[in-house]
Structures are given as C-alpha cells and as structure tokens.
Write a structure and sequence with these properties.
The chain is built from 12 helices and 10 strands. Strands 1-2-3-5-4 form a 5-stranded antiparallel sheet. The chain has a 3-stranded antiparallel sheet with strand order 6-8-9, with helices on one face. Strand 2 and strand 3 (41-46) form a beta hairpin. With 318 residues, the chain is of the alpha+beta class. The chain has helices at 5-8, 56-69, 103-108, 110-121, 135-145, 147-150, 155-162, 167-184, 224-234, 239-253, 259-286, 298-311, and strands spanning 23-26, 32-37, 41-46, 79-84, 89-94, 99-100, 191-193, 202-204, 211-213, 220-222. It has 2 domains: 5-95, Phosphorylase Kinase, domain 1 (2-Layer Sandwich), CATH 3.30.200.20; 100-311, Alpha-Beta Complex (Aminoglycoside 3'-phosphotransferase, Chain: A, domain 2).
C-alpha cells in the first residue's frame, strides 16, 4: 500500500474495503478527521478536543445512531461500518459527491430542500444519543463564565474580550428566553432534527440534484422549529427569503409556527453561535499556532462573535 499509507496506519482494518486504490485526507470539522478511500468511502475519525462541552463519544453515538435510523432515507449517506473500542471512535459511510448548498440554489430549489428536511423530520424514533438541544448553550455559557481562567490571554487580547457582555447578562438573556418559550408552551411534536443545518452540511449531487445531509453529530428528537431557526440564522437568510422559506416550511409541516416562538428560537441560535465563536477565539489565542479548518483567524472569530451579540443587543454597536 503506497498511496498515503500513513493516513491509514492508525485506522482499524475493519473499517476499510478489501482493495484500496486511493486514499486522501479532506477538510472536515474542528473535531474530526476525514479520509476518502477509493473516492467512494469516507472514514471519519472523531477527535478528542472538547470533552467538557462536547464529549467525543456522544458526537460519535449521535451520528452513528442517526445514520442507522435513516438507513432507508436517501437524504442521509449510507452508514457502511463503525468502530467503538471505548477509546477510539470511527464511522465509515458512503462518500457523497456534489456541491454544498448556496443561496442561489436555495432560491430556485427551495421546495426540494424543504421536502428533504421534512423527510428527516417524519422520523419520531428516539436513539440512545438523544439530548436536550439547549443543553449545548448551557455548556457554552459555563465555558464563557470561566473564559479568562481557562484561556489566559495577553493584555491586548484582554481588551478585546472586555468588549463582550458579562456572563450574568448573557445568562439572564438565555433563561428569559427559555422561560418565555415555556410560557407560550406551543406543543409541537418531537421529530428527528439534523441540528446543524449550515450550507456546508447540505450536499447537492451533480447528476440528480438529490439533497443529502451530512454530519449528524447534533441530531436529536426536538421541536422542528429548531432546524428552521438554525437554518435561518446560521446561513444568514435575507428577510424576504426567510419569509418565503418559513411559509413553505409551515405548509409542509402542516401547522403554523407561532411567530414569537420562531423569534425566540432564532435568538437562541444566534446566542449559541456567538458563544461558540468567542470560545474558539479564546482557544486560538491560547494556542496561536493553530489554524481552524475554515482558516478562520482569532480576529475573525472575535468579529463574528461581536456581530451575533450586537444583533441580540447584548453589546453596543461600535
């Protein structure tokens, strides 16, 4: 085996095809390593990076269980094999050739995307990896609370962090939104959500224009409004596209989402991403030699976090 043999030497043999003609490393998320084999299989290794907030075993379990649950749904890649020895965690799934979703494609193929989301959300079975989605924000809040203790920074950087709101203000904002959602008590059915519907996780195949969702590490049973709010906020849809998308989403869903519920949920999605950006900035400042998968710099993470907090009126515009 002379085709990047070093890429595969740590991969458990059970995950590999009998004959290997090619192997290459591709860009993946911050917490995984992806190898394409024979241009048809993808081996994903789950990396131990953030055990306090995002345990590697749970990320693996959620993705593995979701793909098993969705084995007959053509909007999810086929799970081929998986490996779990309690220390290392891998899955091998089919490699999906195609392009990531774009704003242009969304405008002309909105109904196809919504039909694909509805196909996923038609599933109501639970898995052992299911969790309460807003617990992610709670964990980020705790890390934000101790950000200076966990990630010592230089004086110039300290000034940048001082521009962000105190933990107590963000915590009040979060709890107030959760309380309002509970008071409205819109009892929507719990469905299988993807949980991370950014454009980069939505693949459009070139031949049939089939839509396939990848990276199921945050899938769970939850209110369908979460996928909608996440898609709107993380892909920064314009007001007009948001209005049209929401209306079509509701038509396929079969009931109207209370506008205030969507507004509150969008706020929580923006809060989650703002906290994630500032935590990434702190980590990068502690280890400045690191480069993110998206080549996002410390200053860019700071700017992204500031944008989200300003949108929520948690900090003043400069």
């Amino acid at each position: 085996m002379n085709h990047n043999a070093e890429l595969l030497e740590q991969v458990p043999p059970i995950l590999l095809p009998k004959k290997i003609t090619s192997a290459r490393l591709i860009t993946g998320g911050l917490n995984n390593r992806n190898i394409i084999i024979n241009e048809s299989w993808l081996v994903k290794e789950y990396l131990i990076k953030d055990e306090a907030n995002d345990p590697v075993y749970l990320r693996f379990l959620r993705e593995k269980d979701s793909l098993l649950l969705l084995k007959n749904d053509h909007h999810a890649p086929q799970l081929l094999k998986y490996y779990d020895d309690g220390i290392k965690f891998y899955i091998t799934r089919e490699w999906v050739e195609g392009n990531t979703l774009t704003h242009d494609y969304l405008q002309t193929n909105m109904e196809s995307l919504i039909n694909a989301i509805m196909s996923i959300q038609s599933i109501t079975e639970s898995t052992s990896g299911d969790f309460h989605y807003y617990d992610v924000i709670k964990r980020y809040l705790l890390e934000y609370k101790g950000i200076r203790r966990h990630y010592p920074t230089s004086p110039p950087t300290d000034r940048k962090f001082s521009l962000f709101p105190p933990y107590e203000r963000i915590d009040r904002f979060f709890n107030d939104h959760i309380t309002q959602l509970q008071k409205i008590n819109s009892v929507n059915p719990l469905v299988r959500i993807h949980g991370d519907l950014v454009f980069s996780n939505i693949i459009v195949t070139p031949e049939s224009s089939k839509i396939v969702f990848i990276d199921w590490e945050y899938s769970t049973l939850a209110d369908p409004c979460i996928d909608l709010a996440y898609f709107i906020t993380q892909n920064q849809l314009s007001q007009e596209i948001q209005r049209i998308f929401t209306k079509k989403f509701e038509e396929k869903l079969g009931f109207q989402i209370i506008p205030r519920v969507l507004e509150l949920t969008c706020d929580l999605m923006n809060l989650m991403s703002g906290l994630w950006y500032i935590i990434q900035a702190a980590r990068f400042q502690t280890a400045p030699h690191l480069v993110s998968e998206e080549n996002t710099s410390f200053n860019e993470y700071i700017a992204l976090a500031q944008d989200r907090f300003r949108a929520l009126q948690l900090i003043e515009s400069l």
